[in-house]
Structure prediction request, 503 residues.
Amino acid sequence: MKIPLDRQAKQPIYLQIRDRIHHLIHTGHLPPNSQLPSIRALAQTTQVNKLTVIEAYSVLEADGLVQARQGAGYFITSGHLPSSATQRKEQSAVIAFGQHPQPDPPTATFNPAQQVILPTQDINDFPSIYSASLGSHNHPDYIDFGLGFPQPIALADLQRIARRAMKEAATFYHPGDPQGNLDLRRQIAQILLQQGLEITAENLIITNGSMQSLSLLTHQYLMPGDRVIVEAPTYHGMLSVFQQRQAQIIGIPMTADGMNLALLAQYLESHRPKLIYTISTLHNPTGITTSIEHRRRLLALAEEYSCSVIEDNAYEPLSFDTTPPPIKAFDQSGSVVYVGTFSKALMPGLRVGYMAVTGDERQAIVERKLLHDFHVSAASQAIVKEYLASGHYRRRLAQIKRMHRDRRDYMVQSLIRHFPPSATWTVPEGGTFLWIQLPNAITLQPLCHAAAKRKVLVGSGAAFFPKNQGYPALRLNFSLPPEKTEHGIRVLGNILHDMLGQL
Ligand SMILES: Cc1ncc(COP(=O)(O)O)c(C=O)c1O
Prediction:
């Protein structure tokens, strides 16, 4: 197969290959069930890296145009996408997955009134929340909306992939690179390129989950007493990390568009923080994804005040649609560190995350990592590598996203059926959570206790605010099976109606 490539073009090579094959399929030159050249053969004839061909085939697979058959290679599927899909213009390097038509998209009503939070004492207690969530796994008859992870799927795939990954077990006897396996870093660089972030493998550091990246960066950037800006609410694990470092946290309210930038500017000027921690895509807990404009303005403000930025993109792989390029993509000065993970898209137990560092501090962070634990488990890195190389990663993402979109819609419908009309919620375009703002009269502790008595566990919104300050809210995982969601939301709705009735 001849594929003309323009190596000067802005469009990445793997997308040029994808477009050409796309064209050949839809003009009938590649009929259903015909076989594509092997990855090695196409890499040779087109003079590109095998990873590039894998990327191209994986995208075609995620689009439903080709199918990998175990041990036999890639084949054109028998049922192509409708022609509208073929006319779709894909000028950007960012790919949307799992698209399916939405007859009546639910709308968000999130619009909290909120002050900046400046805690004076430590209250957030992530370690005990984490331990409590471990306990809930011993009660399978409970409905756990507090879970921070997607549901387990395709375990048989994992077992097969793990067996294949063990082919390189002999290398596990050697000390590993503290920065992480080079092939895996190259694969991650390819994934980031699709998100619009051009980064080299040299700038990537693989860590034990993204939590280790976040913790190492906190120690790199903050000394006890330094100020750090977070969104309020934000990921409660990070609030505890900052507290343990004895940093002074400033919680800037989260609006429906992201962190309130007017307040950010004001507090950069008045408090001169060292660091901003932001979750720009599918923010935890609200699920909000900020616009390009918001990203550019946040970066401009950070640069104006010489403030470093940690951009935590843990949930990006679970976005239903194309997301804007990360803040890091606009960063010319190296002031942003981008943090990602495979915990949400694959599984948390592998503990594989990473950070992209382009500033001068990279070597110091690598040394910090080395002194912590040498490197991430070679076995875990090998499994993730195999997932990415075999195309299973993309297939899995497409599957999760289809399921999540349906389950998100299901939860929204349940909320409309059972929650008081004064409750409002976000409708995220991906991830695993809905963020529900409850009427001000509701106190969370009695609500959570009453729900737990009826075997429904919820994430109390208080934990996501510095000093547990903020409006009453719940973070609910929408990825549970529909019957569990319906039952759990009905239980919560009844408790809320009772509580409001007693006022
Ligand atoms: C926003 C965010 N960042 C980072 C993490 C840490 O995840 P991991 O260490 O498993 O990559 C989590 C975990 O829930 C999270 O929600």
About this structure: The longest helix spans residues 392-418. The chain is about 40% helix and 15% strand. Residues 148, 209-211, 235, 237, 279, 284, 312, 314, 341, 343, 348, 353 surround pyridoxal-5'-phosphate (CB under 6 Å). The longest strand covers residues 248-255.
